[in-house]
Amino acid sequence: MTARIGVITFPGTLDDVDAARAVRYSGAAPVDLWHADADLKGVDAVIVPGGFSYGDYLRCGAIARFAPVMTPVIEAAGKGMPVLGICNGFQVLCEAGLLPGALVRNDKLHFVCRDQWLRVENNTTAWSTRYDTGAEILVPLKSGEGGYMADRSTLDTLEGEGRVVFRYVGENPNGSRNDIAGISSPNGRVVGLMPHPEHAVDALTGPSDDGLGMFYSALDALAGLVSA
Amino acid sequence: MGAVAAPHVETPAVDTTTHAAASPELPQPYLELGLADDEYARIREILGRRPTDAELAMYSVMWSEHCSYKSSKRHLGYFGETTTEEMRAKMLAGIGENAGVVDVGDGWAVTFKVESHNHPSYVEPYQGAATGVGGIVRDILAMGARPLAVADPLRFGPADAPDTRRVLPGVVAGVAGYGNCLGLPNVGGEVVFDDSYAGNPLVNAMCVGAMRVEDLHLAHASGTGNKIILFGARTGLDGIGGVSVLASDSFSGDETSGGRKKLPSVQVGDPFTEKVLIECCLELFGKKLVVGIQDLGGAGLSCATSELAAAGDGGMRVELDRVPLRAAGMTPAEILSSESQERMCAVVRPSDVDDFMVVCAKWDVIATEIGEVTDGDHLVITWHGETVVDVPPRTVAHQGPVYDRPFARPAGQDAVAADTPDSLPRPSGPDELRDTLLRMIASPNLASKEWVTQQYDRYVRGNTVLAQPSDSGVIRIDESTGRGVAVATDCNSRFVYLDPYRGTQLALAEAYRNVATSGAMPLAVTNCLNFGSPRDPGVMWQFERAVHGLADGCALLGVPVTGGNVSFYNQTGDTAILPTPVVGVLGVLDDVRRAIPTGIGAEPGETLLLLGETHDEFGGSAWAQVMHSHLGGVPPAVDLERERLLAEILVAGSRDGMISAAHDVSDGGLAQTLVEMALVGQCGARVLLDADADPFVQLFSESAGRVVVAVPRSEELRFTEMCTARGLPWRKTGVVDPEAGALEIQGVASLGLDELRAAWEGTLPALFAS
Q1: Chain A positions in Cβ-Cβ contact with residue B455 (cut-off 8 Å)
Q2: Which of A92, A191, B40, B148 has its CA 20 to 30 A from that of A6?
């Protein structure tokens, strides 16, 4: 049976079409989820895509976390549903308390769009089993507020529990603490990252197809092929 | 539902048509509003009375140079005269609509346009540039198309000038802030520095959109009884500009009186509102709920209502007091002139109004029925029941003044042409050539623009196949077939200054070549003609020559001009900018998978071929500018027949998989082209110059009609035989060498890729990354 993966659209969401395309490329069925509906339509997993939800004139993601659709997302995540937050989606998951820490303005103050190498630090989460630990993947990074910040003890916890899933390779693009690009929840089912795997699913339109592994990983997790 | 009550406003005493008829002698500030004596007299003649304040506001903005094209109209007619039926065959809409539309095959129509936002961007770089993007995107949306991509041709003063450090970062951040938040990939554009733009930067914005052919929406209000719905942002006091003199009584320059603040006349953008407005409009189009649509840009409601009515049957009634406002106490004239952003005006059948409002409510877009189409021939606008405007709409929208400005070749033009670069000292010997090359690639105009373009999102929506620094931006429009378009904009204003006719044809040739270099067949042309004051006969001569050069060139190439924009008064004091007719070319690819990249090294074993001929041509060249601060002589020769042949060869080579990389030869010459192909591809090459010709000329001349292609060795013979058979000169100019890690120019120098990269990429960050 084809897995159904929900893709949330808030007003101001931009990369929902890309996330849906990535789901399709991986062989699953994308399902549109609307911010104003507290209804996950029975999906098996959820992607919170990139963009500028509600304009993000306040702190990024600060309004989106209160959207009706987030209530069932938080509830489902608590029961182990795989959830992936990309860029603005990562910010929303942090604001919603599903992931620790916060994303702040890039240290160089400019929006940065570039092809970014990441190292996979943990291949046991619901969204990373298709990679080898230590593998380097190339995906676009495009954000103005992508600096990952958390207090020392949180960082120690994340590092100690292996919850740093992706780390920037080479020059740190935005001032993220510990070069962190993406992290997971304690049970590895919820993952958030600033770079955009959904823009790296076809070498024609992206720098590589390295991002597909995240979507395949989720399908494996749903099929019970791996236990996270 | 959907109609939101305006905040409570104190109704000001307004100037009604009745009052105007009864007070013919009342002095009016028409001069302050930019109208000439004879223009004001003509308005009185049209109306048979003096205009009301609101009418005066409408006429003054609609008859401004920006809206009425009064100085350029006479000359722009030449585009129509030179467009043949054959050229028109693929045009679905042309000059006069919000944007030109062309049929690109498979039932797809593509619309594209460039507009200027120069003056606002000098005053307030961030908002000026941001709202420039917003405006052009709404133009594309108003054709019924989904906006697909943007690109921004930019011109600034000297890179190291203090004011450039104020203007450039603000403009770039504005383009990025608005475009990124809208979710439109930025795929191209230009960044050029020249002293002449120091007090007058150019911020041009291009947008491309696509739709199914049958979904084309033209701006017209027809069908008596159809409703006029204003939707999007509220109307405020921003961007009112000169019209505020009409309200001078009520606030006398004092911010506190009446509780009102004087707002800057540069509009303030809200990209989030525009993103939502785009999605809302596309859903409305999809549900067939719109009869006609017009965006609100320059001249705001004055423009939208008069143009909609003029393009329809003529009659329209609007209740201005229904317009949702965000400032208290706005007068009818201010509401009509406000350039508040992110607003659209639609004509909707009465039976569809409820469904229309449901869609707007879903997207939280404010929508208000403000009037209806009537069976008369006048645009009548009321304010709390009293008539403040009663005009024939065509007199506002289309029948503005037309000037026959004098034009004459400037007396100094001969001296400029005589001041050739021939006597400038040229580098000789390997060491001097090497130094010249490194200085050239590090000069601001030739250096990598990555510091700018990496602030732009080029990936969003997942259809970007090529973006900067490619020759053109390539966007997929149909995922199932791979059909897509390529767009490029170009203008070397130094060439245009030396010879406006030929220089503009060179701009056309370069944009056309850039599109073909990506493997796309050029199909249509747009433009943004940036010039100094039309009151200067020398500037008008440049303009007239540029229009003729472009139109004649398009006729030779068989591609129509589908639209354009004119920006005059780009000057500081008496000094005009270098004439800058930016030319945009759109091409089509039946399958974007065959688009040709810029970087070499993708295929093992590539041969580098230089297509076209190199002559000793340095007038207006980057070498003359960088090494000698010289601008004189004549620009390179242009041969449009050759450009067409070159394009056909490139497209054929792309179709048959014979070309693995290509890059056009223009600013900076062959040296620049080879450096960029090597650095973008992160791959070295060995270059063989012609031993019988001057290496300096070969490396740095800017002869037109040239492209370097990388051809897999297995295809070399087939490709060169095709060139020979069709009469296109070619020369084997090297081989790609992934092992070299350098650009080895035989007999000149071996330049390590790291050294080249440091020179090419270091300049802009050193200037602007504070």
Answers
A1: 110-113
A2: B148
H or E segment and range at residue A38: none
The predicted-structure confidence for B227-239, as pLDDT tens digits, reads as follows 999 999 999 987 7
Cβ–Cβ of B465/A205 closer than 8 Å?
Answer: yes
Q: Label residue B265 by pLDDT band (50, 70, 90).
A: low
Q: Is residue B146 part of a domain?
A: yes
User: Domain range for residue B338?
Assistant: 17-68+225-374
Partner-chain contact A111 B177, CB within 8 Å: yes
pLDDT in tens, B86-111: 998 888 887 667 788 999 999 999 99
Same domain, B307 and B454: no
Longest alpha-carbon distance in chain A: 47
pLDDT 10s digits, A19-78: 999 999 999 999 999 999 999 999 999 999 999 998 888 888 888 889 999 999 999 999
Domain A4-222 grouped into CATH 3.40.50.880: yes
- Nearest CB among A11, A17, A21 relative to B276 is that of A11
**Minimum Cα–Cα distance from A142: chain B residue:** B457
Which residues make Cβ contacts (< 8 Å) with residue B172, sequence separation at least 6?
A: B129, B154, B452, B455
Contacts of B363 in chain A (CB under 8 A): 11
Mutate to test the interface with A, among B457, B476, B768 (most CBs of A within 10 A): B457
Q: Does B417 touch chain A (CB under 8 A)?
A: no
The verdict on A205 touching B (C-beta cutoff 8 Å) is: yes
Shared-domain flag, residues B532 and B669? yes
- Write down which residue in B324, B348, B374 finishes a domain: B374
Residues B208 and B231 in one domain: no
Percent above pLDDT 70 for chain B:
95
Verify whether the Cβ–Cβ distance B460 to A112 is below 8 Å: no
B596 shares a domain with B477? yes
Residue B241 pLDDT level (bands cut at 50, 70, 90): low
Contact indicator for B220, B122 with CB cutoff of 8 Å: no
CATH number at residue B22: 3.90.650.10
| Edge-to-edge order in the sheet of strand A180-184 | A29-34, A4-9, A45-48, A83-86, A190-193, A180-184, A164-168, A112-120, A136-143
Which tokens sit at B235? Answer: 């109307």
Q: Residue B92: its pLDDT value, please?
A: 87
Can you tell me the distance from the alpha carbon of B632 to that of B141, in angstroms, rounded to the nearest whole number? 43
Asked whether residue B505 falls in the same domain as residue B444, the answer is: yes
**Catalytic residue among B117, B220, B548, B663, which?**
B117
Q: B675-687, pLDDT tens digit by residue?
A: 999 999 999 999 9
Annotation says A198 is catalytic: yes
Element (H, E) at A49: none
Distance from CA of A58 to the nearest CA of B (A): 12
- The pLDDT of residue B258 is above 60: no
Single pTM value for the model: 0.94
For B509, half-sphere exposure in the C-beta direction (CA atoms, 13 angstrom radius) is 33
More confident residue, A114 or B246: A114
Distance from CA of A158 to the nearest CA of B (A): 30
